[in-house]
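>> Question from a student workshop board

For tomorrow's exercise we were told to take the sequence and the ligand below, predict the bound structure, and bring the output to class. My setup keeps failing. Could a helper post the expected result so I can at least see what it should look like? The ligand is FE2/S2 (inorganic) cluster.
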Amino acid sequence: MASPGPLFRPFTRLVKIQILGREYPVPENNTLLRCFQYLQPEPVALGRFCWNEDCQYCRVVFDQGEGSAARAALSCKLMAAEGMRITEISREIRYCLRGLALPVSGQPREE
Ligand code: FES
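>> Workshop helper replied:
Here is what the output should look like for this input. Compare the format with yours to find the bug.
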């Protein structure tokens, strides 16, 4: 019987990304959806994701930092990168990341 292989692509360090204004370390060299799974393993594994660019449930809006343009993307296709800022997430992603208690508005939370 064949092994399914490792869940994450090989990585040697974590990069910092922002999700709705909060910073999280995630494994480099992995797609954003896989990074979401790194942060919330079981909920993302149980999410209704095709992982194959078909379902569209993994949509995000992101930029690469201050002054860069916002772009829409599929997180199952997009590679996470240092300094990436995810400013909008789909309903399915929000549900799967509920354990992070992300801000509702998508704006940085006042603390
Ligand atoms: S997980 Fe289905 S399109 Fe990305």
